[in-house]
Amino acid sequence: MRVAADDDSITATVVSVLLTVAFVGLSLLTLGVIYLSVQDFLQKREKEKFEKEEAERQKEEARKKRAMSRQKRRNY
Hints:
By secondary structure, the protein is mostly helical. It has one helix at 2-75. The mean pLDDT is 89.
């Protein structure tokens, strides 16, 4: 009878350790996914900001070119 009780205790300990390891592993995996999601979001936001600034700069350059061409026409 004593042997059966020891087996149950060992089995319970092994199951408890495995469940703890699984919990820690899934927690790390979840944190990794959250980290990657945040990095992706920040990268997209930075890219959109850069594209917006680039478009504004190109519009400004186009305005300057048009103004220069108008000024050249007036000088003739």
